[in-house]
Specification:
It is built from 16 helices and 4 strands. The protein is mainly alpha-helical and about 375 residues long. The strands form 2 sheets. It has a two-stranded antiparallel ribbon with strand order 1-4. Helix 4 runs antiparallel to helix 5. The relative contact order is 0.16.
Length: about 375
């Protein structure tokens, strides 16, 4: 049901939005949900996954080949100002699809063989400057604790006190809000914040855990001693960092051999587009006024898996392998192949009823709305809304 939540007519609280005061946490068991989906949709197929990957790689290499003619004398100079942005956008979309395939590998959804999954995922993510195993470990923790206020790992809401705001029951709160908070609420600062998130959000998350839990010390996907890694994961973390360094070194060598401008045009700008799409997609999947977050007392896996929104990105859905519009299914069953997650979604929708949330608001509008509306949660309570 589009942007609707379960309703319970008991004890309305007029100061809260209707979807919040009427919300009643779901009581489904994971077995009930799994049994609602045909068994064959859980089957993995490495050959089919490889075929999809080959298609993506063919598109990426084709775009690279075509872009090699943009600066040739055969193309009028004025058309280059159109051709380069077209290449950057298209290649960014295709590379995001390849990133999603590596993401499938991290969930062991690519094939039935763990070594195949991790080898393919490591190569693809390293080429996109992602520390594969490091991300795989933190992302697994995110899936195991989605929507949990102290254990989730990405886009964790900040509380009222963490934002430096006065208590909700402070009758003088309008006078206590600082000028800096008022400036933060301005449309211009919101636009700057959105652009900053889309441009830098992904690398800052990898380097310093921005939007994740707050830890003491350097919490980073490049620090094997970060608090979200276990001792037996450290070797893989080091290997992931080495993979990124090797690719980074290769790009540096090519920049010296060819030119920085060449690497910037062919690789860096599409890479920035990948960062943009990843951050945008993830933000809109897990940040929305109608999505609850839970403290330990009320959280369970099923409730956490429902703390996500299926959202259409139009014709880009297929390019992104439907990680956008079948994300609820993915959070319940992350080893299910992405092409089957889309098929499983109608079954989930029928089973979950009004607990299934889909939003077909155009994503630029949804981005602006959610950025402005989802600022903080309260310091008290076990079921929290922005």
């Amino acid at each position: 049901m589009a942007r609707q939540n379960p309703q319970d007519p008991k004890a309305p609280q007029p100061s809260k939005p209707k979807y919040e005061r009427d919300y009643k946490p779901p009581t489904f068991t994971i077995k009930e949900i799994r049994d609602s989906i045909p068994a064959h949709l859980f089957e993995r197929n490495g050959w089919l996954a490889t075929a999809y990957l080959c298609k993506d790689l063919a598109m990426a290499f084709s775009l690279f080949f075509l872009a090699s003619y943009i600066d040739s004398p055969f193309l009028p100079s004025y058309l280059r100002y159109i051709a380069w942005p077209a290449y950057w956008f298209a290649q960014g979309v295709v590379l995001t699809g390849i990133w999603v395939v590596a993401h499938e590998c991290g969930h062991q959804a690519y094939s039935n063989v763990k070594a195949v999954n991790n080898t393919v995922g490591f190569i693809l993510h390293s080429l996109l400057l992602v520390p594969y195993h490091s991300w795989r470990f933190s992302h697994s923790a995110h899936h195991k604790a989605t929507g949990h206020m102290t254990r989730d790992q990405v886009f964790v809401p900040r509380s009222r006190s963490e934002r430096g705001l006065p208590p909700a029951d402070n009758t003088q709160h309008d006078h206590n809000i600082s000028v800096s908070h008022l400036i933060e609420e301005s449309p211009l600062m919101s636009l700057a914040g959105i652009l900053g998130m889309l441009l830098l959000g992904w690398p800052l998350y990898l380097f310093s855990n921005v939007s994740g839990q707050r830890y003491s010390g350097w919490a980073s996907h490049f620090n094997a001693h970060s608090p979200f890694f276990l001792a037996d994961q450290r070797l893989d973390v080091h290997l992931s960092t080495l993979g990124v360094l090797v690719v980074g070194g290769g790009l540096t060598y090519l920049a010296k051999m060819l030119s920085f401008a060449t690497i910037f045009k062919f690789y860096v700008v599409p890479y920035l587009f990948v960062n943009l799409w990843l951050t945008l997609i993830t933000f809109l999947q897990h940040t929305d006024p109608v999505l609850p977050h839970y403290r330990e007392k009320e959280w369970n896996f099923q409730r956490g898996a429902l703390c996500t929104v299926d959202r259409s990105f139009g014709p880009l859905n297929s390019m992104f392998h439907h990680i956008t519009d079948s994300h609820v299914a993915h959070h319940f069953f992350s080893t299910m192949p992405y092409w089957n997650a889309l098929k499983a979604t109608p079954y989930l929708k029928a089973k979950l009823g009004e607990y299934y949330i889909r939003d077909d608001t155009p994503f630029p509008i949804a981005l602006w709305r959610n950025w402005r509306a989802c600022q903080f949660v309260e310091d008290t309570g076990d079921v929290l809304f922005y």
